[in-house]
Amino acid sequence: MPRYAILAIGAFDYIYSKTGNMLIRYRPDEVVVVIDPEQAGKTANQVLGWGGDIPCVASFSDAKDFSPTHLVIGSAPPGGVLDDANRKEIREAVQNGCHIINGMHVFLNDDPELSAQANKNNAVLTDLRKPPSPPNFPKGTWKNRTFPVLQVVGSDCDTGKMTTAWEITESLKKRNRKVEFIGTGQTGILLSGKGISIDAVVSDFMAGEIEYCLDQLPKNTELAVVEGQGALNNMDYSGVTLGLLHGSMPDFMVFTHEPGRTLDVLDHPIPDLKELMNMHMDLLNPFKESRFLGMNFLTLKMDDELAVQTCSTAHEQYNIPVTDLVRFGGEELIDSIETAIDAWR
User: What are the two backbone dihedrals, phi and then psi, of residue 272, each rounded to the nearest 5 degrees?
Assistant: First the structure.
């Protein structure tokens, strides 16, 4: 079993350290320490509200006391640029024979200094965002799929699309459903062991790469759950979102949102949620029909009473199941998905 140290300098909180946070949530026995000098001395639970007594330390030098086997770059700065502070910690980890799992857009295997140090110390550098070569061009194989596809989409970045997709997958597996998760970002790929980092793919091949991932799934698959990325209404990442949507050609969707968030991560107003859901269906209509089976809300900032009321109000407004899967479980949403699986074709 690996022993992960999470590198999240100045970024360890419930939003910005997505990769690290999901490892702490879903692989807690494998995470031994978090590196963030701003949170040093605290535990993961004190920072996130989950993660138990996983300690936060200031540097890899301090993390060595916990005998990590892998250093995971737990946050992804815009553009994935490797700054001096992160380079220092990665260099020290490699010099100590620690394997590096990298989700940034910059590839560590292309870095002369770090790759040489890795070879010298028998450390493996894994670049999760490295796209396939040669690339896969779309072929329209969605027309002949033998199983339905569910894609998780949302109102903005950082609304819990990966978490939602993973929770849906795990909940259905507990009901003995043959469900496959397709990761489309570094976190989903790391958790599931398969997928494609879609935002690292040349735009002409985005649809083809996710289509190819779906084509590789077992023939007895009952449902493929595709992790969403970005948002159609986020001007920085809408191209990724659309390429992913037209590559997966989902039969069903689940919508994610953080209630109370009125501006997106670029400080642009978030449109009406019904308008956004209709936008997704309109963009699929030239090819096929799709529909929303439910909504998953990120209610971490709310107390229990407000969270329950918010989900209930949205359920009445949109007439589909609404929950926070992490907080409340969401039996009604999972029931809705199971019913859709059984009725497909």
Answer: -55, 135
Which amino acid is present at 301?
A: K
Domain ranges of the chain: 4-127, 141-343
What fold, for 141-343?
Rossmann fold (3.40.50)
111: left (phi over 0), alpha (psi -120 to 50) or beta: beta
In CATH, 4-127 is 3.40.250.10: no
In percent, the amount of the chain with pLDDT more than 90 equals 91
Q: What are the tokens at 9?
A: 């300098």
* pLDDT (tens digit per residue) in 281-319: 999 999 999 999 999 999 999 999 999 999 999 999 999
Of 174, 130, 185, 175, give the one whose Cα is nearest residue 152. Answer: 185
Q: Report the pLDDT averaged over residues 231-246.
A: 97
Report d(CA 333, CA 159) in Å as an integer: 17
Q: Which of 222, 166, 188 is nearest to 103 (CA)?
A: 188
> Are 297 and 256 spatial neighbours (Cβ–Cβ below 8 Å)?
yes
For residues 52-89, one letter each, b for 16 or more C-beta atoms within 10 angstroms of the residue's C-beta and e for the rest, the string is eebbbbbbbebbbeeebebbbbbbbbeebebeeebeeb
Three-state DSSP at 32 gives strand
pLDDT in tens, 145-167: 999 999 999 999 999 999 999 99
Stated as kind and residue range, the H or E segment containing 214 is helix 206-215
For residue 231, the 8-state DSSP code is: -
Query: 19 near 190, Cβ under 8 Å?
Result: yes
Look-up of token digits 């409340």: 328
Using the structure block, give the residue that is written with the tokens 């209509």.
285
Same fold, 4-127 and 141-343: yes
Q: What value does the CA radius of gyration of the chain take, rounded to a whole number of Å?
A: 20
